[in-house]
Amino acid sequence: RHFKPLTIHCKFPTECSYTPPPLTQHRVFSRDTDSSSPDAAEQILPVAQLPDPLPSKIPKPRGEVSCISRGGYNLQEALGWPASEYEETHAFVLQLAHEYLKINKSWKLQAQPRLAIVYTEAQKRYPILEHYDGNWAVGDMLRIFLKNSCSCDAY
Asked: What is the separation of C-alpha 101 from the centre of its chain, rounded to a whole number of angstroms?
């Protein structure tokens, strides 16, 4: 007899990395310290007093913004903000672009000091933008806008 092989197709969600709980972290004790003395026990901080790890910034997604067919991402979906917040922030960033940048030039031809002004002004108005590593949220909004405005001038 011949039996067909049994196959099962399972799709598992991607694993998210997490910070281990503070109790499992490695601690090195000095050889000079006597662990049996009452003073040694007082030096160890209880879990409630351990310092919180610094919050890390949100990394830029893989791929190029708005190039979904080539492995890129949709900026609004990547940010995960409510539509009204995204539209308000996006409108302000575009207003700053009109004010400080040459909108008929591509991203690479923009003056870096003027881009820095746009980043700073956007972060002053919307502090949530400080949580994005390397200002990628504002940078992507500007890249899309400048790409579209630069290509409109070509026609």
From this structure: 24
